[in-house]
What we know:
By secondary structure, chain A is mostly helical.
Amino acid sequence: MYSKSLGASLKRQFAIISALIIREMTTRYGTKFGGYMWAVLDPVLFIGILTLVFSAIARLPPLGRSFVLFYATGYLAFYSYRSTADQIAKSIEANKALLNYPVVTPYDTIISRIILQLITLFAVNMLLFTCINLFSPIGSIDLEPVIIASILAISLGSGVGAANAVWFHMNTTYEHVWGIINRPAFMVSGVFFLPEEIPHPYREFLMWNPMIHVVGLFRTGFYPTYRAAYVDLTYVVGIAIFSVVFGFVLVWMFDARIREPK
Amino acid sequence: MIRLEHMTKAFRHKGRLKFIAKDVSFTIQRGKSIGLLGRNGAGKSTLLKLMAGTIKPTSGRIIRRANVSFPLGFQGSFNPSLTGEQNVRFVARIYGTDTQGLVEYVQDFSELEEAYYMPVKTYSSGMKARLAFGVSMGIKFDYYLVDEITAVGDKNFKKKCRKVFTKRLKHSDIIMVSHSTETLLDYCSAGIVLEDGSLNFYENINDAVEIHSQNMALR
Lengths: 262, 219
């Protein structure tokens, strides 16, 4: 585009991103069954299965008395990361045809999906915790750690997703490998256990995984007595910022490649 | 104005580098319509996309001080599950034009009647093409990019398209790929010939057409 004032270009950018969001809302999360339903059904089913299995083999969850709350707090924090990473990784490929419009850039497709994720995850969290509160009262929630943990999870997901949008485009083998090694990621992210229960050398290994910290932080908002002393906020914030910058720089560096066929 | 500065575009084909243009620099001033000529696979469509900015040069740069369109009649972006009207609305939004104005213009232009409010997947290819052409004509650009004008619709509709397009070209220019020399001579004043990885700019379209026919006569 030719030179325009900053205000005018910001306004145009905003118009493009909101147009993409509206389009994605009406198509991907389309009108047919599925769509938006899966954004809710995925965590509902997963939390349901964890709750069923673990309430059958244990008398009490690792924290509090409610099984469903323990697994919901674990999985929703993890789901914020995982679903964002998946959605962003596919953002450019899914909107490829739109890149034929000179005004649409790969960044627009990424940013519109990040905003869409923020809206969707907020709705999913509100819905699920409201429902859980109905049959197993949660008590008071400290929103600050919950919001910080959610923002960290979404940032990590955005960075990993943006980087993968580039890597997946350049190498299909990597896409499969990533899928396989990432499948058990939730097992080492403290979704169904507390890091405090893990014996000595292994706990230190786990601490390298930023999602352990995010899940722990998320839980402190729901369990007033749980301190999660292992949470290293500086470490996670550092990793989150690094991953976002790294992912976005990668998209910028390979702008020419991602516009060409695989 | 569109300016190419030391632009090189190459891509890998079966392990070998294939050049479309090597270190070319020239400026296209407003008021000139350009025809792109070259044999099949010479890179005419790629050059068109480079000028649009939807693909990037390997090195060098392209400076655009103009509002460049998407390919005329482009329909690849239409989402099949959205209605014609919803798809038009999307294009209006990303181009920041008056949404309602464009929606009404295209409805009138495309003659789709009630099909305008039906999902695009129910359209025939002719209906899709009419919708796409309507969108292209409904937005004002400095440069219209044309990759082979394909005739759309029946005789009357074709007449209308030609009339509207000619009117648009009073204030806009065109960059066009076509195998038909008549069409190029009709619309363009200058020309670019692509041959074996070299790119030459000619101020006069007649020269470009002549060089191109010489190239074609050689093999």
